[in-house]
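Weekend entry, working from home. Most of the wet-lab plans are on hold until the incubator is repaired, so I used the time to fold the two sequences that have been sitting in the queue since the last round of cloning. Logging both here for the record. First:
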Amino acid sequence: MTTTTVRQVVETPRRPDRTAPRETRLRALDGLRLVAALMVAAYHYGGRGGEVTTAWGSSPKDQFPTLSGYFAYGCLGVQVFFVISGFVICMSGWGRPLKSFFASRASRLLPAYWVAVVLVTAVFALPMVAFKAVAPSDALVNMTMLQQPLGVDRVLGVCWTLWAEVRFYALFALCVVLPGASRRRVIMFCAVWTPAAAIAQAAKEPLLDIVLMPEYAPFFIGGVGLYLVHRDRRDVYAWGIVAVSFLIGQHYAVRSLWNAADPNAFAHRTTLGIVLVVALGFLAVTAIALGWLNRVNWRWLTVAGALTYPFYLVHEHLGWVVIHSLHIGLGLPSAETFALTVASMLLLAWLIHRYVEKPLTPKLRSALAKAR
């Protein structure tokens, strides 16, 4: 779910390799990343209850009687993010030393994240805002990105996914980047992590759950497998990794997100609907990996990919404030409020990208790469 530049990292072969992918920007992956972020936004604005009900003045189910049931599936955009992340992290870590990998990851995650934490804390502290800010001490801990394991209140509701991403980065860095990425090492990484995560699920040991992430591992592993497919579409082991990851991943998605039909429930997600969305996510990344979407090469998709991470960070909590101002304060209809809220969050994301990420990311990357 980060805005890593999606460029190809290819080992120099001893002889021409017809299966090696060409060095090109995968702009379709940028577009898919934004689609996943918009799915999550639809879920937060119109597919769930909670504090967004205060923003609307009533349940989103009343605001969107038809669409709310579809918006409820938007939370699966997170699983799509994880598949994309597996693909991109394997690609960006291939042939890169550990120090450079760490500098790249930290410089991409932290500047926009720090600004988002400060913005949400400051806005929620305003007396006219109906939502409660976290305690100052908790807000400071949030700057470390370790609030979840420390049991501290979160400033950003979406930051739990960043905690999963960070753990994936650490596993990949230690097992693949540190010794040096190669096809065999990446396959072994996937082949060991998959059963280890299953064992962790059976063992019910909290430490194993934290490290191995049984519920999210299949999506990261599936993305890694799809990068191997991108390098060589005839790689049987890579296809096997992808297939097993999808089969296990859809199980976890159904188990955690399915809810039985209940007239009192906010929305009813069906088993078939969940499996279908997960399958479409895997298929979309597969199509990109195989080069089927190479013609989707519009330059604006690069901008879309760059906006995704800051949009993802700020859209939920600041979106509540905008919804309340437009719908309750100005009396705008639900549809117009929804569209304007998304547009305003995209504009804010562009401002963060332009005035925070662009100047600070290269400076932070350079400082971390040079540090001893």
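Second, folded right after the first finished:
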Amino acid sequence: MSDTADGTDDTTGTDAEGAQRPTPRERRIAAWRKAPRVLARLGFLAPLSERLAVLDAAGSVYDLDEDSDMYGNGVVEALEKRVAELLGTEAAAFFPTGTMAQQVALRCWAGRTGDPAVALHPLSHPEVHERNAFSQVSGLRPVRMTGEPRLPTADEVRDLEEPFGALMLELPLRDAGFVLPTWEELTEVADAAREREAVVHFDGARLWECTEHFGRPLEEIAGLADSVYVSFYKSLEAFGGAALAGPATLVEETKVWRHRYGGAVFQQFPTALSALIGLERELPRLPEYVRHARVVAAALREGLETGGLPWFRVYPEVPHTCDFQVWLPYEPQVAAEAAIGAAEETGAVLFANYWDPKGPGLSFTEVNVRAAALEWTADDVRAAAVDFAGRLLRA
């Protein structure tokens, strides 16, 4: 899902006097900003003044009397070192985007294995959100695995009919519902790939959120892979940016390709500083958010049922991370209007994201649980869900 539409989220119109009406997206974001109660205050939707205020804490994570970075030194190198320490890898390289980081990593692995084929899930980010960049830009050949809304199993890896040089696993698999395998399943899948002499790469855009589900520290999770990509803005609320972590020789090679891909940016200190702040502030709290997401999901399910909805789905029923999906038998426009109306009238926002169509009369949205959600009790969530259900039924 990209943040562009609630069905007809960007549709404009005029009122009776000819004045332009705000789009549903504009209404949704305005209601979210004004609401005293939300489940997440996502930074990328905040006004610039709030985003810039993040850097007020920069002096607590880095010596601001140091020289500014130039083409990846200074504070950028400090961030790379910190990521490598957290993930237990020999080295890490900063990239402006995860799309670039993963293409470069898998391109380098293809050169080493001699096989450009990358086995991955058809719902993984490169297949859904990157406009065929693997094949169009990097000379890689995606090989799709299971079509089930879950990570592949070890048997599926072993039995894949085509050879492949790298297995890419998105942890969690966002478009399937932010789902994760069990620790035992993940270990078996990694072992199965190596039985085929393939390397294992983790698309860990949200890897930071996975420790609670696996019951393992970050370095043990990352240790199952040959290379790992992590994002700084999806879980940590940084301005942007990503890192590629792995063996020192691989990381040095990726820095060469980073330059070739246009990723050797002259100065990136605002993004690097915001990432260090996120690692300091948000990373330690993510397990708490995951635990509370389970409370929110259960209460949401109870509220929608009490409110009289004949069918809905909270998925996964027990969230694996601090994000999950809600499915409804309504057109996106109907669900969006109920959610926006509730936000505008009650000041409590259950559904801050847009609704995506998934078939005739069917839509879903993503629910993000962050620090702001900790102020909600289960009763608060149930009451808001009952109100939302009533709005849908009246619609």
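Plan for Monday: verify the second prediction. The first strand starts at residue 13 and ends at 14.
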